[in-house]
Amino acid sequence: MRSTLIVFLFFLSAGLFGQTIPGRVINKQTKEPLAYAKIEWNEGRQILTNIDGSFELPLEKDRDSISFSYVGYKTIKVQISKDTRYLQVGMTPAYEQLETVMISNERDPAEVLIEKAIRNREKNDPEKVLSGFKYRSYSKFIIDNESGGMSMQADSTSAAIRTIINEGRAYLSEKVSEHYFSANNIHKEEVLGIQTAGFKKPVYKILGMELHPLSLYKHNYKLYKTEYAGPLATNAFKNYQYKILDTTSGERPAYVVYFNPRREEVVAGLEGILYLDTISLGIQKAKAQLLGEIRLEVEHDYKYYPAKDVWFPSEQSTKIRPGSGGKEIAVFGGTITLGTVQQKKGVLDLIFGSEEVSKNLFLNSLTTNYEVDLDYDGEIKNPGAAIDVYAKATSRDSLYWVENRKIDFTERDKATREKVDSIIQAGNVERKIQVKQAIASGYYPVGFWDVDLSRIFKFNNYEGIRLGFGGKTNDKFSDDFNLNGYTTYGFKDEVLKYGAGTELYLNKKTGTSLNFSFERDIRETASFHYLKGQRTFAILQPRFVNINFYYNYRKYASSVEHRITPKLDMELQVAREEIWQIRQYSFLHNGTEYRDYDLSSLSLSFLWRPFSKFLNTPESNIILEKNFPQFTGHIEQSFSSFDGTFNFTRIGLKAEHEIRRLDRSRTEFILEGNYGFGDLPLTHTFHANPNNPGREGVFRRFSIAGRNGFETMFFNEFFSERQASLHVRHQLRPFLISDHFQPELVFISRHAIGDFDNMAKHQNITFNTLNHGYSEAGIELNKILAGLGLGAAYRYGAYHRETFKDNFALKFTLQLQL
């Protein structure tokens, strides 16, 4: 009965509101789809087919005549009526010489046209031709149910979900922004208003998802965290092939140029059409699609400004929905699997937490630009943050939204705002977002306490199994401060270690805080710790397992942290340490041997990320995109005049850079320098991150490789008072053997050089220094099985040893992602 009623209502609605006829255009001989074939009807109305040749044609009369045309094919006309349910059109190639309006017939006319368009980029790209501009935009971000219904069990959660999906959208966010651009390539978005249905606070990460890239002229076209080759990039002919489909009429005619990827297995590419102005060859309009496991559609519209002779973006829409299967598509930095919107956990999973719910969803983002000023030369405030959320942006009233909406706010949009609260509450979505954000930084929230995941379990040769518990209070406990601490026990050394502290939030927006801490623990001899840039959670720390040279310390510290700009963090620390040895080591200073000593120190550390992208909210500063190079520095001064035993200075500077390419290959560089002078005990000199256990035989030394460790350098083999190191890793593009088996081959080169003034002052220990320069080369084959791989390294140069086995290291590699 229910099915009969649905069918009846379907035909009734078709009769009342008009009929949409689906269909497909193909090559009659090869059966291949014809992308962007032109369909005309009803005295000039026209649409283009999608990249799979599909179309949906609205029938407004009982009978109509439809014309299908495509470059290189014979135009055909087809009669359709209200009885037509599906229309497949086969077109026959026409082998006569194609007529074009191009200058030359010697080369492919499409290549000549695109070559000129690439040369004219400097004249057409608004970011190149204009010294500055600003504009406002209104955006609406929607996650909706395309099918209008789905099968779910009748529990309270599903009922709430079904209500929202059928009567309103599943997710809706609105945003009003002011955008600024200056001649020195500063891009800035100031979010003036934002509201997200169902959430007390906006999901700020949505703001950094590159939903609306401004330019198609760039080398890389970035959309939803994934980079595609630009269709008008300098090397466009390497990645795309082109065909002229048509020319448009009007005051400013345009060439309609079809482009599709030339080497999809190597570089991510789009398939679509460009409308290029016949005079300037600037982009008037563009449409791009991807079809496979999902269907992605992007449309750009531009408006012409005669005074500047430039086409400036006016509107954009982006839609993602389930596809028909086939190739995987990269979105949100991951790939898409059949029937879902994304493979990696992300926005949809946070909102729904259910695969069943997401199967029939589509994601749609629309934006319109207005109040465009192409002569802007004013000041851009706080340029360090790419996106700055205005303090009142989240508390705009309904009148503000009525005045600023530039896209119709439908009855269904209103239903979303009114009813989506139930789905957020039923799915405990805000809790899921809190957990995801905490885990990304190495914590798991339990009530008012964030458990420190790095403290739970570790293992090394000295302590054996190291079990512990630690963490910090979160905002549920207090918005003004946190209490933090840990305790851990080594089952081999049978010693309890612990620490406690507090952080007072002086200004969350600028990251200004006052910290007090106490620790009683052990630390690796000759290790150097940067105050900033070190809090990165890792499932496994490869070197930690094989470290066997520690010293005890008890430390009292107080520090001030402050974010000078969104890209520059600094911390100043005052500390007092009591140190006593574990091994039989002593430091000879002024005729006295010291095993135990006290240090009074002042440290200044910074982390500078000049090219990373940051989001500045009223509450905090969020990194949206980690770009390179980035720099970390630390200077430490120990004073004997403040009841300290020694007077010395230690300085460290580290530069990291990464070159990422569209073919998914990348090259990484880490350059680090450490410099110490004064009364330096061995505990406070430097090592070069050795990672080779001191055991006989290659297989007995088999361990897990680190990212910036010397795999052939034995632990405690070298120490330096001054040293520099360089690590270079070059990963080839993955081998695409299957969807789930894509190993990565990496070539590695590492070098270090160091010096030591007086080794004789360090008693009861023998070591070498790096004054002749240390070198090793390595190779890794990663992600062979579930993140596991194999690697090997070989020592060569000045410190090359006599036997092969003493120069060679065989390693596991492990690359896991949370």
UniProtKB/TrEMBL annotation:
Keyword vocabulary terms for this entry: Carboxypeptidase, Hydrolase, Protease
GO MF annotations in UniProt: carboxypeptidase activity
Keyword Hydrolase: yes
One Pfam entry name: CarbopepD_reg_2
Keyword check for Protease: yes
Protein's name according to its UniProt entry: Carboxypeptidase-like regulatory domain-containing protein
Originating species: Christiangramia sabulilitoris
Taxonomic lineage: Bacteria, Pseudomonadati, Bacteroidota, Flavobacteriia, Flavobacteriales
